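haha ok so turns out i had the wrong file open the whole time. this is the CORRECT one, sorry everyone. sequence first:
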Amino acid sequence: KNLTDSQPKYLGTKLHDGERAGPGMIIVRQRGTRIIPGKNVRVGKDHTLYAAKRGMVKFTTVRKIRWNGQTIVAKMASVV
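then structure:
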């Protein structure tokens, strides 16, 4: 009865800060947009972040103000 389990989803950061990224390389696999895309980063349909151009991965913390005036602090992935 308790022997069935779901398969692992292998979520998380695949390329870390300072690593080289080529076009199409996956940077972060995530559920929901916890880390937002920055410069030269695109979002897949399952919220996966991937590099659009060749460069170095850079993670920064940004403050965003939403339409209702709420301020959120989020991580942003960029390829520079």
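The CA atoms of residues 12 and 29 lie 5 Å apart.
again sry for the mixup
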